[in-house]
């Protein structure tokens, strides 16, 4: 419990630094964290990963950013699967009569933890403190580099990326890679089709009336490869989708009324016969 309290204390200090945009003393806090034995449970209960990632993004001190990256990298390893093996080993070791450590008890504890996490993060995934995306291959193409920068800038709209803890630069690069891949296979260049698709992603990410799209992309609910292929209709805000739905219903209704009117008119002509 003392360790958890210590991590929470450090996280609060870091959050204040981010709010004040003053990272003085961040290096000492990161060094403290480095000496604390970290577990998956502590990462999920304290959300320290978000605080460290926010400091990393804001600080201009190379030593701070380097240590923050190192900590995040080591913590991500805890999320990549060892906990699953550990759980299975513990299940084998524990006595059947133990109620406190029974699978049901662990399931209830896990459910409670995930539920709490979902409340804090909304629609963000509950099993990770920082969304993890595949690293995109580097490129020296000036057009592609510029597009990656613009996509990353669009993801920074509203500062949601800080709260979620996403690496918007890496995510922007991955989205660009997924946009290019199918087009490049077809056209073999970064032509207008590529640029138009990039522009449409940027416009929708920056849309003030559609913040949920950006948040869902940042937290991983919409993976980069899926976002790269989404149509304008799929990216639209809930409000716009509802408006389109109502317009479609109205158009169908008017078409049916017009058709009914024509049929009635034809029926009158037929029944009346020649004069």
Plain-language structure description:
There is one protein chain. This protein is an all-alpha fold and 275 residues long. Among the domains are: 2-80, Up-down Bundle (Transcription Elongation Factor S-II, Chain A); 142-235, no CATH class. 74% of the residues lie in helices and 0% in strands. The chain has helices at residues 2-20, 26-34, 40-46, 48-58, 62-79, 82-93, 103-121, 142-155, 160-164, 168-187, 192-206, 211-219, 224-229, 232-235, 238-272. It is elongated.
Keywords, separated by commas or semicolons:
275 residues; mainly alpha; Transcription Elongation Factor S-II, Chain A; elongated
**Helical coverage, percent range:** over 70%
Cα-based radius of gyration, to the nearest Å:
26 Å
Strand content: under 5%
The H/E string reads HHHHHHHHHHHHHHH
Uncertain residue ranges:
82-129
| Outline | elongated
Let me know the largest β-sheet: none
Coarse structural class:
mainly alpha
The mean pLDDT is 75
Number of strands: 0
Taking the alpha carbons of the first and last residues, their distance comes to 98 Å
Helix tally? 15
Oligomeric form: single chain
List the helices and strands and how they pair.
Elements: H1 2-20, H2 26-34, H3 40-46, H4 48-58, H5 62-79, H6 82-93, H7 103-121, H8 142-155, H9 160-164, H10 168-187, H11 192-206, H12 211-219, H13 224-229, H14 232-235, H15 238-272
Main location: nucleus
Domain TFIIS central: 143-263
Subcellular location: Nucleus
Give the gist of this structure.
By secondary structure, this protein is mostly helical. The protein has helices spanning 2-20, 26-34, 40-46, 48-58, 62-79, 82-93, 103-121, 142-155, 160-164, 168-187, 192-206, 211-219, 224-229, 232-235, 238-272. Among the domains are: 2-80, Up-down Bundle (Transcription Elongation Factor S-II, Chain A), CATH 1.20.930.10; 142-235, no CATH class.
């Amino acid at each position: 419990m003392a360790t958890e309290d210590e991590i929470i204390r450090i996280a609060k200090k870091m959050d204040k630094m981010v709010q004040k945009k003053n990272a003085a003393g961040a290096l000492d806090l990161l060094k403290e964290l480095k000496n604390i034995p970290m577990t998956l449970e502590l990462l999920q209960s304290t959300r320290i990963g978000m605080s460290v990632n926010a400091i990393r993004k804001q600080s201009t001190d190379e030593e701070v950013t380097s240590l923050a990256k190192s900590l995040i990298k080591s913590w991500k390893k805890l999320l990549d699967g060892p906990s699953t093996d550990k759980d299975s080993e513990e299940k084998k070791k524990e006595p059947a009569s133990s109620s406190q450590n029974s699978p049901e008890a662990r399931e209830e504890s896990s459910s409670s933890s995930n539920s709490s996490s979902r409340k804090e993060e909304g629609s963000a995934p509950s099993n990770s403190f920082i969304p993890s995306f595949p690293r995109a291959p580097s490129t020296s193409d000036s057009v592609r580099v510029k597009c990656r920068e613009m996509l990353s800038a669009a993801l920074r709209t509203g500062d949601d990326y800080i709260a979620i803890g996403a690496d918007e630069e890496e995510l922007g690069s991955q989205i660009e890679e997924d946009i290019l891949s199918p087009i490049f296979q077809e056209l073999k260049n970064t032509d207008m089709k590529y640029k138009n698709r990039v522009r449409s992603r940027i416009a929708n990410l920056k849309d003030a009336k559609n913040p949920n799209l950006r948040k869902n992309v940042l937290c991983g609910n919409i993976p980069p490869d899926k976002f790269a292929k989404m149509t304008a209709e799929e990216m639209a805000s809930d409000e716009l989708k509802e408006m389109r739905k109502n317009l479609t219903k109205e158009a169908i209704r008017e078409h049916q009324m017009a058709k009914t009117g024509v049929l009635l008119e034809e029926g009158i002509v037929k029944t009346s016969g020649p004069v």
